[in-house]
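Technical appendix A lists one of the benchmark inputs used to test multi-chain prediction within the project. The record comprises two sequence entries:
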Amino acid sequence: DIQMTQSPPSLSASVGDRVTITCRASQSISNYLNWYQQKPGKAPKVLIYAASSLQSGVPSRFSGSGSGTDFTLTISSLQPEDFATYYCQQSYSTLWTFGQGTQVEIK
Amino acid sequence: EVQLVESGGSLVQPGGSLKVYCAASGFTFSGSAMHWVRQASGKGLEWVGRIRSKANNYATAYAASLKGRFTISRDDSKNTAYLQMNSLKTEDTAVYYCTRHLDYGDYWFDPWGQGTLVTVSS
C-alpha cells in the first residue's frame, strides 16, 4: 500500500493566519492527490482534486500544490468556518489511502 | 440533487455479520465506482474498498487489513451499493460512509453519504 504522511497532526492558528499542511506519499503518485475537509459529525467534502484543482464552490483561499511525493494544502487567510480536520488522499494505486489528518484549531 | 444515503448500521456481536446499504440518486450510478470509507470514533478516515462499474467488470478491491472479511457488491437496477461484513471484530466499530467517483475520468470522492454507525460489541 502507498502510505500517506501528513504534518503537522494538529495546529493552532488565528483568524487571518496563513496555514500550510503538508502530505508526503511513500512513493510517487504523480498528481493523484486530493484534499478533504471534515467538520465534527459531518461527512468529508472535497476541497482540492488532482493536487491543485479547486472543487467548484470551494473558496479561493484554499489552494493545493505539489506532484510526485510532496504536496501542500494552503489556506491563505484562515476563516472561522475553516476550523476542521483536513485529510489528503491518494488515488494513484488500486488501493486508495488517506493521510492521518491534520486538525486545525482556534488559537 | 446528487445524494448518497447509507442505512443498515446497527449493534452486532463479535463474530457476527452485517450488511449495510448505500442508495444513490441524482447521478449516473451505473457509470460510477462505489467506495466505502470508515471512521472509528475520534480517528481518521480509512478506505475500506470499492467496486467498479459494469464497463470495468465490477472489479473489486479491498484494504489489506480486512483480510477477506468484507465484500462489496452493487445492483445497478436499484442504484444501490452494498457492504457485507463478516467475522466482525470490535475494532470494526465505526461510521461507514459510502462515496463515489466517476469510473472514467475523475479520481476523487464526491459526494459522500451521511454515514451509518456499526457497533460491534457483546
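DSSP finds no helices and ten strands in chain B. The beta strands of chain B are 3-7, 11-12, 18-25, 32-39, 46-51, 60-62, 70-75, 80-85, 94-102, 116-120. Comparable benchmark entries are summarised in Table A2.
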